[in-house]
Every structure is written in C-alpha cells, then in structure tokens.
Amino acid sequence: MVRLEGTVAAIHSLTLADADELLALRIRNRRFFTPYEPVLNDDDFTAASIRRGIEQGLHDEAEDRGYAFAIRDLQTAKLVGRIRLSNVFRGPWQNATLGYYIDEASNGRGFATDAVALTTRFAFENARLHRVQAGVRTDNPRSMRVLEKNAFRREGIALRYLNISGEWRDHVIFAKTVEEA
Ligand SMILES: CC(C)(COP(=O)(O)OP(=O)(O)OC[C@H]1O[C@@H](n2cnc3c(N)ncnc32)[C@H](O)[C@@H]1OP(=O)(O)O)[C@@H](O)C(=O)NCCC(=O)NCCS
C-alpha cells in the first residue's frame, strides 16, 4: 500500500475501502467531469461499477500495467479526487499516461498540483518509469496550469487524439522525463 504526503494532499493506493466515498464524489461531479471523460451512462454511477473499476485498478497494479491513487485532503482526510498512471509500457519506452480529477467543491486549493507532484515522484522513484505523459483538451487551461506548475513540458498538439464527451478531441501533450525530475 503506497502512501505519499505533499503540502495539502496525500495520495494512497485506491482500494475497495474507498468505494463509497468515490461513488459519492463521482455522482456529485457527474456534470462537472462530463467534458473531460468518455461518454458514460447511468450504469457507470452504481456501487457495482465503481467497485469493478477499483478491482480492475488493483489487478492492473499487480500486473504493473497501471497505478490508481485516492487523493485526500491532508488536514481532513476527506477524499477529494483520484489520480492514475495508466498504460504502463516497459521495454525501451518506460512510459505511462497520467489522468486526474478533483471534486469541484475542492477545486482551486492546490490538490491537483500536489497530487501530480506526488504521483510523478512515485512514477520515477517507485515505479522506475522514465517518462510520464498527460494529454489535455485544448480548452482546459486549468489542467494545463497544473502540469506547467509541475514543470511538465508542452510537446505539441495531437489531433483527434481521444474520444472525449462523444467527439475526437485535439489534445495538448505534456511530458516529463526522469532527467527533469
Ligand atoms: C483540472 C483540475 C484537476 C484542477 O484541480 P485543482 O485542484 O483545482 O487544481 P489546483 O488548485 O492544483 O491548480 C489549479 C490552477 O489552475 C488555475 N486556474 C483555474 N482556472 C483557470 C483558468 N480558467 N485558466 C487558467 N488557469 C486557471 C488556478 O489559478 C491554479 O493555478 P495557480 O495555483 O497558479 O493559481 C480540476 O479542475 C478537475 O478535476 N477538472 C475536471 C477534470 C479534468 O479536467 N481533469 C484533467 C483532465 S487532463
């Protein structure tokens, strides 16, 4: 069980003990997160679906394919979001993709910035990856700011990169390699 503490946030491995809080967070942010996620339906907002997602994450972690973390307010221990390294690729690439979200009610307090710093540290120091990449919708300046504050480099724009909210959206690709950590 990984646990890392930053200035305002802590991250720890996401487990079934987090399922109820995560479901509540996902339900109350359904509309807020819609522009940044694949198309979801009512079935994705049930306890069974959330538990399946967490179990899949634990399976991925055991197979070194991905690492999912709960983000908690360091002061109150309340769940404020989730961050995840996905698509871990070893061999000559040693790369993973980073994705995250923060409860709308807890936005603007530095939780994402702290969680990205901690997860990047985990990626380089614990998972021994060489590169972490994040793709951000071109109209999501808040998320770009979070990555820039973490000294991620803006590499360019990938056209029609991901199907988000029902359309193939252009994304700005940000990355950092261990040499820049
Ligand atoms: C993007 C997101 C994770 C940011 O979380 P957060 O905890 O509010 O982020 P932080 O507080 O660490 O930092 C936000 C920064 O963006 C800045 N910001 C906020 N709105 C902004 C805007 N419209 N334009 C530019 N910067 C903006 C804040 O001022 C802050 O920077 P600062 O510390 O220099 O003042 C959160 O809004 C979210 O979950 N959004 C929906 C899902 C999402 O976009 N996920 C990322 C997909 S790539």
What does this structure look like?
This protein has 181 residues and is an alpha+beta fold. The chain is built from five helices and eight strands. The chain has helices spanning 19-28, 30-33, 47-62, 111-126, 141-149; strands at 3-5, 9-13, 67-73, 79-89, 95-102, 131-137, 153-164, 167-177. It has an eight-stranded mixed beta sheet, with helices on both faces. A hairpin with a 2-residue loop joins β7 (153-164) and β8. α1 packs across α3. The radius of gyration is 15 Å and the shape is globular. The structure holds coenzyme A. Coenzyme A binds next to β5, α4 and α5.
Described by its quaternary structure, the protein is single chain
* Number of E strands: 8
Strand order of the largest sheet: 1-2-3-4-5-6-8-7
How helix-rich are the residues, as a percent range?
25-40%
Bound molecules: coenzyme A
- The portion of residues forming beta strands comes to 35-45%
Largest sheet: 8 strands, mixed
Order of helices and strands: EEHHHEEEHEHEE
**Cα-atom Rg, whole angstroms?**
15 Å
